[in-house]
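comment on this one:
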Amino acid sequence: MESVLRLKPPGPPGDVYVPNFHRRLRQSKPVALATTSTLVAGGLNRRRKPGNSIHWVSSNATTLSYVKIWIHAVWATHNRADCLTDAIVTAFCEHIKQNAADKGFFIDTINGYRDHMHVLMVLKSDNSIARQMQLIKGESSKWAKESGLLSADFAWESQYFAASVSGRAVPVVREYIKNQQAHHASVTFAAEFDHLIRSAGYTTDPPYGDELR
């Protein structure tokens, strides 16, 4: 039997009846149903995917995508200056996480050690990685100087590492970031960064990190 999504008359506008889920979804804002390929405004619309049933959507629905891309990013202080004390790392973590929330993207885990920072985050659907990293690095560098947390010549290195993380690997990366202090008791950041870029398929030959194997 086909599973059909339809408005349940005489429900109010925006009230979508989903019989196969045995629940109604109140649309306080446009909501895309995962089984529909496209949501289009302007009356009742239907879209059929090959092999699937017809799905009806209400007139106040708009095009909306579901995107969830986990990113592990790493960046260093300029010239890898050893200036990030535990207290400074904590301040950066709190500020960067709050700033990310204000800018509309999610940071799951953030930590750092002496000369570098790690973050596990979700890439916002309308951000590029470069844009999201600029929102993190550029803003936090400016804040650190203006707040007096660090000296006026403080800066992050322009280079950074960023790679996607599978959902299955998220718990592993999360714990790795949380345990940076213990990890770097025996491993330098230079060795760690080299391992990260090589694991992503890059060499460390000049120009640094720009040549895929």
Notes: Residues 22-66 form one domain. The helical segments are 86-103, 129-146, 170-178, 180-183, 189-199. The longest strand covers residues 156-165.
